[in-house]
């Protein structure tokens, strides 16, 4: 397909969408990139702002008729090049579809449009005593979070988007919306279309509505920081916590350098050592029981006394800092971009995988940050490269390749939560093998025979 | 495709499988039916006993070459006609692939062959302090449980097969095994092939290996029975328990008639009223906290004092009785078969759906039993029909149709855990609409272009 759109297509787009369509360069450029390290790809030919499912249907039908690629756009916070217009086409911006359509407090679920962000949903839920736990670093859109099968700091207890999407409305290649799933908690009714679209990264169609599981706000919440003299001690404590089956709500690792970056960025005074940032949810007695067990485990590994965040404000400041570790780290090297890794391994292999990768990064001399949803066995290095240095980029890619090879050899996955996008296509091939990739290709071909949905992502 | 196999195919089968292949009528008849109400379909032309993934590959390749249907067979306990050889072909019996391949206690998971049954796995785990929670009534095979996305009494706390399968090996139409997923707890690596095969009922390929999540045996377990003067009071208590977010491990409903059947079958002396059979897992303090809350809720709804099953033996007797409710009910009408329903609705609509369906069943005059995994909003009527009476069968079908229509109107699903098989194909169409069915058909066509895998099931 040509990277430049035909005049006939652009005319049809303008006729259909009028003011909801923009071809201004600044708008297109903003939509043609994400938070990943820059790759030099021209922006989409136009940006369409969908305001309804009907708009999405019209855009899909138009793109299908003209064989033009369509890239769904939520909040622009993806990390693996998911939004790059590799084969041209339009960006379909869903941020105006941002209504919370229904909250069902009695059924612990809500139905939202895809442009609603996670913070917006939680603000809407506050009066109901409910919350939605999935929290990638950015205030991502829920449609985008479903598309990348996102998770975040609460996944160790509450699961990922895979576990928390009950039902979807999607617009597939036919341009006619389909419903997948229901509001029932479980179902054995046919193929699991919901789970197929969760994690499909816009390559099988556009998500236009989501029904999400909610949880009662815990009666008691406690958060604490525990510092460790070594990274290994922090990791070994985490492994013990998980293996004991303690229902910890959050268990996050930061290495010493990242702690320093976060301190500088958020004005915190955390001890500049590897630390675990933990949260406990439950009844007051249940939280007490969990924290006593976890304190004992951390003490066995020479962890510091727990530093408690007692008020909601203190907790929110801590988690805000954790969520901004990525941006905090970027500021330690002005002008840099981060090549991020996203491996996830079985918990028993976490120390092996993480420590070998640290040694590798140290030996390279590249600056990096390290954070981890270690309760899930998931961690992120961010190699902070000069985007204009081909040598540094190559060095970071080699580190990432070795890390992924290490994770796969240990029974893990190349992506815990960021998705495949453009940057992890080869890693996906290594992980799934030719037979797995063949099955995925067959699905893509079946649901997107013309290849209009986000072409060149997930599969090459 | 012809119902009778060609002599060339049978000769090739014998040459390939020798003694592992049987064409004896009794063997074929045993493999050509399941636990569902009898439908007059000839048995498969042959039964092949697979002993390895390589055997499965050979069988798939042979069936593909000769365009002969292949129906995977586990323990024969499916309920929706999944095993009927509607279009002829062979039954591929996987019960000899019954080895627990690896237990990873530190990662809380295990890898098994598909013929391992749930009880066999739990026996193998006993020394490790771990268990696998999914428990459909029968001692089903784990491959079959994955294929039907089974759940059971523990799903309210531990989820279903959807949530507890980490990875699979499957043999698709190519006849070459593919691996889906890894042992990592979460992943965003490409399309969720694992979830696509979970619930595919043998229509997309054959599951030859499963990696399953395990859980530490709870420190404390308490089980109790609470009787209620009315079904409604039992259901309203359940709704309140779930809406409060109490992490109850099991919450099962039996109506009075079913309690009587279970008493007679298992020699129990349960009060012949509607009852909730509950179990609580956690630390001793956590269990105490949960049971106090639930007792208070049940008392508000005029439930009886809790009758505790204190020892493992007492608990196991109770749950054995619950798991055999189906067979207990069948014995109340000698020679009968059960037409079972399987709707699942959002918890807030459970009372509406269940009570209207009871009124409908009562008005019909057909004998029935009623059990429910009510914590999930899932319940089963079994209409006990004379299999030789077309009138009774028609009457039961009408009741089921009305029940499904009711469940769908309330935001629910036609199948909570039994799958679609042969008997719920029309209900699936109603639930998913033409657009959802079109997507499922496209998937089936993509992964099984020749239509050899369990044809005529899930989709017509």
From TrEMBL, chains A, B:
Keywords: FAD, Flavoprotein, Oxidoreductase, Transit peptide
Lineage of the organism: Bacteria, Pseudomonadati, Pseudomonadota, Betaproteobacteria, Burkholderiales
BP terms from Gene Ontology: lactate catabolic process
Cofactor(s) required, per the database record: FAD
Entry protein name: D-lactate dehydrogenase (cytochrome)
Record domain FAD-binding PCMH-type: where: 40-217
Superkingdom field: Bacteria
Origin species: Serpentinimonas maccroryi
Family label: Belongs to the FAD-binding oxidoreductase/transferase type 4 family.
Keyword Cytoplasm in annotation: no
Single GO MF descriptor: FAD binding
PANTHER family associated with the record: D-LACTATE DEHYDROGENASE (PTHR11748), D-LACTATE DEHYDROGENASE, MITOCHONDRIAL-RELATED (PTHR11748:SF111)
